[in-house]
Amino acid sequence: MKKTDFYDVVVVGAGPAGLQAAIHASRKKVSVLVLGKEHKSSLFRAHVENMVSLFNATGKVMLETGRRQAKNFGSEFMDEDILKITADDGRFELETEGGNRLACKTLVLATGTARNKLRVKGEKELVGKGVSYCVDCDGNFYRGEEVTVVGSESAAADGALTLAEIAGKVHLICDDLKVSEALLAKLDNSHVVLHRGAKVKEISGKEEVNAIVLDDGTILSTSGVFIELGAKGLMELATSLGVALDDTMRFIRADKDQLTSVSGIFAAGDICGPPWQVAKAVGEGCVAGINAADYAKKLHPTL
User: Fold this and answer.
1) In terms of CATH, what superfamily is 131-227?
2) DSSP class of residue 165?
C-alpha cells in the first residue's frame, strides 16, 4: 500500500475556479495540492472574450498560464481523478485512480457537475427505472442482479468494481478504455465482463430496464444500466460526505465564504450553480482558496 501524503489544502478540479483557489491558498504559505486534468475543464476548448482585460483568449492558454502561476506560488499538481473521499478524525482522506492515498485538513471542490448522457433510445424514458448516473447512489438496489456500466474512464471502471461486490454479474461497455494501470489491473483481476470497442445502441424495457442492445446487434440482459461517462462525479463524492445541495438538488450550497455545510469543505465554480462564467468561477475560487487556507491554519494547527 502506498504511503499517505498530507497537505493543508487539496483542491479538486484544475479549471479556473480550482486554479484560482490554489493560487490564493498557496500565497497564504500552506501546502496545496491540485487534483484533476486540465483538458477536462469546460474552459479548455473555449475562447473567452467577456473577461476583463482578456479578449478572444483561448481557454487552453488560460489554464496553462494559471497552472504555472499556481506552481510559482508553491502548489503541487497531480493529474489524476478522485475515486473516494472520506472524513476521518478531523481530516479528509482521498484515494486517486492511480492508487495514491492523500490526506488534508481542508478541501476545495471546484469542478463541474454536468452529467454526460448517452443520448440513445430508451435512456430518457427509463431514468429511475433502471437507468442511473450514480453507482454509489443506486448500486445497492441491484444486489445479486445482472447490471451494466457504460463508460471508458475512471468513473465507469470504479463503478464496475463497486458493483462487482454487490451484483450477480457486471458488464462494462467501453468504447476505448482510458484508465490508470492500477485501475486496469483491478479490472483484470475482477469478475467484470469487459466489452471493449462496443457502444450502446438502445436501452430496452417498458416499465423498467430489461436489456441493452449494442451497436453490433448483441443483446445483453440487464436489470440496471449505470451511465458513468468521464471522471468520478464530484457531486456524488461530496454528497457522500454530507455536503448539502441547493433546492434544485443539482448544485452544492455554499455561503459567502464558499463554505459548504461541512466544516473544512469549500466549493467554487460551476459546482455551485450558474451563471456559467469564468469571472464567477475565478471570483469564487479566490474566496474559497483564501478561506480554506485560513481554516487550515487556524483550526487544525497540529495535524
Assistant:
1) FAD/NAD(P)-binding domain (3.50.50.60)
2) T
Q: CA 283 to CA 70: how far, in whole Å?
A: 16
Give residue-wise pLDDT tens across range 165-177: 999 999 999 988 8
For residue 204, give the C-alpha cell: 430496452
Is residue 202 a contact partner of residue 122, using CB atoms and an 8 Å limit? yes
Query: pLDDT tens for residues 76-121?
Result: 999 998 888 999 888 999 999 899 999 999 999 998 766 578 889 9
Residues whose CB is less than 8 angstroms from the CB of residue 221 and which lie 6 or more positions away in sequence, other chains included: 146, 210, 211
pTM for this model (two decimals)? 0.74
Q: Which CATH architecture has domain 4-113+233-299?
A: 3-Layer(bba) Sandwich (3.50)
Could you tell me if 128 and 257 are in contact, meaning their C-beta atoms sit under 8 angstroms apart? no
Backbone angles phi, psi at 283, to 5 degrees: -60, -45
CB 297 within 8 A of CB 28: yes
